[in-house]
Amino acid sequence: MNPELIEKITRSIVEKLEQQSSFEQSSPTDDNQSSVTFWAHTSNANKKVINGPLAEVVEDGSEKELIKFPNIQEFDSTSLPESKMTIPQEEKDIESKQQVAGIKNPVNQEELDTLIQKTPARIGIGRAGLRPRTETWLKFRYDHAAAVDAVYGNVNDNLLKRLNLFKVNTQVTDKEVYIRRPDYGRKLSDEAKKCIQEKCTKSPTVQIIVSDGLSSKAIEENVEDVYLSLQQSLKSADLDVGVPFYIEKGRVAVMDDIGELLTPKVVVLLIGERPGLISAESLSAYLCYEPRKGMIEAERMVVSNIHKGGIPPVEAGAYLGTLVQKILKYEASGVSLVQKEQ
After folding, report:
1. CB 251 within 8 A of CB 182
2. Cβ-based neighbour number of residue 192 at 10 Å
3. Which residues share a beta bridge with 51?
4. Contacts of 253 (CB under 8 A, 6+ apart)
5. d(Cα 314, Cα 228) in Å, to the nearest integer?
6. Cα angle, residue 95 at apex, residues 89 and 100 outer, rounded to 5°
């Protein structure tokens, strides 16, 4: 690269900085002043000093030409250019605007705000050209990753020990089979049936079972509060409760196998819901009166959306206790219960 061109560009930058600056010039000749120096590649020049607000160029007959920049921290904040002082605030304003992503100049701002307040869905997020905005896209990817983790994750064994739940399996061998073959998740393995018959009491009034289903995260985040609240509600109603247990990789219809094995009056299944892009930790509670093989889905009932952003877990557990009492009173669940109530 041409050394003369480098020198010319450097001088031009220093002169422009001097012209644009409006603050008081700091002394560049202070020996104690901290500075950053750059070596210029030119030589063969008599010593010459160009003073500027941010730098000085020193030329001499030596082999080096130095450009000295004083440490910016030594300037008083009041002497800085206005543009320097306003940048941090502007950055904050830009950041806050990015956090409130949306459509610029909507036709009906009031209507859009009403829709956004009524749902956590992605409404009015705006676009950058033909694509979603970067912040929106990153949030989407984050939620998608959380959903995948919820499906493929496992429930912590410490939680099961704390709730005194023993574990059994369905006919599913691994998670990929569980996803591809829902029918395998509806049937208990032979080992599971034997274990349940050995450890559980026959013909209880209420049988509580827990399963990870399609969200292990839902179990870890919510099931303890729901389970303990439900137990308290059933105890207050003086209802006989069987030995609860945990079914790994179960589906909703696995409660039919439980009905055949233990013949309870009511089965309550706490199971992880299929995760979405709003919540990956939503829990559902399925209830059924005298479940058995071959029963139709209309005979079941469900309380869904149990999580911190939906139905509070403790409240859900208390409500489930009330619902169990209603099922026992009418000896029906699902559509049949609704018809009998009417």
Report:
1. yes
2. 22
3. 56
4. 186
5. 8
6. 130
Of residues 314, 210, 319, the one with CA closest to residue 268: 210
Q: By the 8 A CB rule, do 150 and 216 touch?
A: yes
Cα 144 from Cα 198, distance rounded (Å): 41
Instruction: Give the pair of three-digit tokens for residue 103.
Output: 């459509």
Length of the chain equals: 342
Give me the residue label for tokens 């001097």: 18
The gap between the terminal CA atoms of the chain, to the nearest Å, is: 92
Q: Average pLDDT by consecutive 10-residue portion of the chain (342 residues)?
A: 66 68 47 46 47 49 50 45 46 43 78 82 81 82 78 85 93 86 91 94 95 89 94 93 94 92 95 78 93 90 91 94 94 91 82
Angstrom distance (rounded) from CA 221 to CA 226: 10
Name every residue whose Cβ is closer than 8 Å to that of residue 284 and which is 6 or more positions away in sequence: 213, 270, 271, 272, 273, 302, 303, 304, 305, 306
